[in-house]
Queue: 2 jobs
Job 1
Amino acid sequence: MSKISVSDITKVFGPNPKQGLERLNQGYSKDDILADTGNTVGVNRASFDVEEGEIFVIMGLSGSGKSTLIRLVNRLIEPTSGHVYIDDEEITNMNKDELIEARRQKLGMVFQNFGLFPHRTVIGNVAYGLEIQGVEKEEQIEKAKQSIADVGLNGYENSYPSELSGGMQQRVGLARALANDTDILLMDEAFSALDPLIRKDMQDELLRLQKRLGKTVLFITHDLDEALKLGDRIAIMKDGQIVQIGSSEEILENPANDYVSNFVKDVDRSKVLDASQVMRRPEVLTTYKNGPRTAVRKMEEFGASSIFVVDRDERFQGLLTIDDAIRSYKEDIPMEDVLKRDVHTTTPDTALNDLIGIAVDTKYPIVVLSEDNKLLGIISRVSILSGLVLGKEHDEEVTEA
Amino acid sequence: MNYFYFPLEQWTNTFVNEWFLPTFSSAFESISVVLNSFVDFVTNTLLFIPAELFTLILVLIAWRLGGKGLAFFTLIGMLYLGSVDIWEESMNTLSIVIVSTFVSLVIGIPVGIFSAMNNKVQAIVRPTLDFMQTLPSFVYLIPAVLLFGLGGVSAVIATFIFAAPPAVRMTNLGIRHVPKEVIEASKAFGSTSKQLLFKVQLPLAVPSIMAGVNQTIMLSLSMAVIASMIGAPGLGATVLTSISRVNIGLGLVGGLGIVVLAIILDRITQGIGQNTK
């Protein structure tokens, strides 16, 4: 069971939404519908599921319909057609009272420009959701104080929003959404109005809170880096449609279409990808048992100037260069003694970003090892370093070549 | 341009005299009785309070809401009203202002709220307000007298017509100007429409509503003077007498009295508005 399930949700704005919807179902484009009927398609048959405890990010540029989409989930905007289910209860066919109850019990929301009540203090803002439910005054205060502490705003309970900085105001917004103790947080460009350093803080804070409280988060953003950082899964929206849903890696590695690939081409992959995603299986491997002669022949065969040596259980031993192989053969030194063992190794989940320093220092490829020292793959220095200079497309050619 | 004659004058007279007045006279009678006793009650209360005590209370209010300067001005102003012997007239004027402001707000603010919540209501209310504000006041002084007779009640009705529009408009404006995201936030947490109105929209509209109240009071005061022509007692009557007798001195005495009341009321209500911001 998905926590949030959205199917074919559509919003048409304008004088005659039904007509717009018909045209949409007949396959007309958004632009044609606007020109013919004056109706604007906000969201076009979007479907997605959000699993419990997941951060699901909807990413799109302005005008892509992402802010409309999140408002269709809690019906701040009424959908033209389609269905939204939360915990298998259909939100879209609820009456007014049921909807109010669902908003109170299930859906917290955080807004781009905070949407704080300027006439209420911090604690008055945070307790608002509880107050309108008629919760006892003492319990309101207690819960509100708890969520104010959760976002690190202790001591500001009696300040007014206008007395706080943007980052602190958004912490109030977050605390207000947490105070109701709903399973789901809807976050509409929640950090977009903050400056970059504060934004990073808030992203970390959200990840920390999410880990601790296990909320299901539906997060809207126009910032791809933010999407990649926060999202367990990401949906990319364009012109009201969802064009791709997937994990960061899936979206970066297999963009569904030109729009997405164009979008992700300038992404700093080093921050998003980890070692397992850029490593490749080494083409040439040898073992001690094969001896230096075989090693040299293999190198010749693959046109390589060095070879990785593993033991019987594929545990990594070291790197054998052509010079050392020849020396071992001619002078009859065991391969063990000429092996280079100071090759840099790493684990599969190390971020690419953290490998840059190593790649700059070392002459050899970086070796990716499993926990029991099995050789999983190697990362050529060029695949890390070229990405920094050339961007993704060139990078791919190099790794594939 | 008179291609045909449109007998608006005759029709109106026939309509009013032969149908409207006979039909509704009892209704107007009861409104008249209620308003009359209201005006009398306020007037009597104001006159019953010793002038010294009234001055003291007003000075304290002025001090609290407008600061030392206003308190000082209020003291001087009250001394002036007493020393030129127009205290009773001032209290008469003040009571008409109080009653008509009260009526204007009791009707105006809810109408403002409805027109903020509903565009159709606004579409009806706006031209009505335009009509009320632009129609020359003398035009509705006549029917007011016809319906309610000479005196304070007609003055209150005429003043209401003139002074209520800002209360409606500013309430409407104040509610409509509450930021969209704040409204969305309130709804997203599960507010009912009533909670949205009373916990978010109205509190945030208070500064704007107070500006409307201030305007209503000011307009009431200026109308209270004109209303003296239909027999309303007070400072307006003093001015009117001075005109008919060409008594410049009396005119100045009454005119200054109105100015004093206007400034005090204006500053005090502005003070309330600012305190709530």
Note: The longest strand of chain A covers residues 40-50.
Job 2
Amino acid sequence: MSARRGRGLQVYTWILVGWLVLPIAVMILFGFNDTTTRQNFVWEGFTLKWYARLFEKPDLTQALVNSLFIAVLSTAVTTVLGTLIGLALGRYRFRGKGLSNVVLFAAISSPELVMGASLLSMFVTLNVPRGIGTVVAAHVMFSIAFVAVTVRARAAGLDPALEEAAADLGATRWETFRLVTLPMIMPGVLAGALLAFALSIDDFVITNFTSGTTVTFPLWVWGSTRTGTPPQVNVMGTLIFAIGVLIAIVNVVAARRRKT
Amino acid sequence: MTDTPAIELAGVVKEFTSHGETVQAVKGVDLSIGEGEFFSLLGPSGCGKTTTMRMVAGFDEPTSGRILLHGQDVVGVPPNRRDVNMVFQSYALFPHLSVAENVAFGLRRRKKADKREITRRVGEMLEVVGLTGRERRRPSELSGGQQQRVALARALVNDPRALLLDEPLAALDLKLRQSMQVELKRIQREVGITFVFVTHDQGEALTLSDRIAVMNDGRVEQLGTPREVYERPGTRFVAGFIGTSNLLSGAVTERSGEHAVIALGPEERIVVPAGAAAGRELEVTVRPEKIDLGVERPPGPGSVLRGTVTEVIYLGTATNYNVRTSTGADVVVFVQNANNANDIAVRGDSVWLSWEPRHSYAIGA
């Protein structure tokens, strides 16, 4: 009975893993496809030439650079501001706290299409030239809530006596933050930063509304689908995925080492 | 003891406002705690003892009144610049730092010592609390009792003018609590620092303290040595809160030398060493262990009451007898199981209670 149930659970687990991994596997596989046409849908043999010719298309390379720049900058800004919001909401009681929570929730739950369209009309109305600047501002805007929420959860679970103990032992407010509060909420800050980066680097909808003539990686890929997506796109996707996996592995190893 | 008290509170009041309502948590406390004293603030939860301590540490500021540390008014001085250290109820050890780093935290902040000196003093303090060899452990890897010792070491290593302890033993189990009580007393003697100990556990306060301030409803009800507070309770509250206490009352009928006598019949009386004149109503307490219990009416000039045993509770080293007196009061009598192989009385027996005049204590007289 229990053995059969165990088997069933195993099968289910593997189906689920397959479901999640299969699209990624296809992407990786077609980065090695020795395709001769403009389309990259039919397997024609194994090659490594796309890796060698990764930066052959200057506009694609520029789009990737733009995306990375936007992601790094918006993540940095979002992490700092979001952490401060999360700390305030998790640690203190103040007037307008309820409203702030509602606004955060609204930012997370409102449809991207609505946000993108309203951002565009706002930028147009205010006569702000669209470009990397507006994209970064938009990305900070929609990802700040995710950082704030993860940090808030961490900060709310903090024993208030910890900060009092630090002050009692002679730490100034800044030292208390740097030596006690920040290390304690760090897991929340890192999780929020990773979320912000992931949201930014592959955002299409809001970016499309706010980018003006600037092209990011997702926008370039979308544009290329009409004429045929070159295998370099698969290679870049593969590399981004590989970096993500690497970070995850480092994180797991570090956590395990901390435990022993 | 030097002339300047380590800690002085004068007319300290603390009000909290929540939902537009002002609540007085501390309603005017005056205290003077001597150098090197082991001082306890004892009271039920909500009596203001923790708030009082937090004001000394600097986490709360008094609404009015003065707080002096070694003669210096510290109201308005932030906690990081007050020369007192606190042991928190939750210990509040920094979970991301090792034991040694936790203990060194204060020394590093105050920049009083160089690296070598810090290492040496941390090592010494860990030796005092018996944690040598655990320097590199994380707090989460230690038992509750060990964490408690780290918290103590972390505070004491700074050589504060006074150490504040907020219910530090509450989270420990009974056995550990008892051994930590002995430890605390030893450590306090060794380092010679003023200890201010907040507790709701009267046994703990009696065991450890040089002096106790019994607090209730934001005020100090009584201040005295453990013996004074136990044997001469100043108020009804103190009599009830500390130990078991038998409360009897009646009007003084006559005077006999130094004593007031409350006659409750031809053979029964309560004799109290008090100056009250005839006719005055008195509330008298007598501790359970001071009362003799017998089947025959004892001679002598002391208090004598007659009653019926309603319950006999065997406690191992002693037996508790609950007795309903002829006046209707319930009295607990505590009899050591020393030589009496058999019980003196069983449930339903008619007995005589007696005690010497000096064991009666008139509250507020």
Note: Chain A has a mean pLDDT of 91.
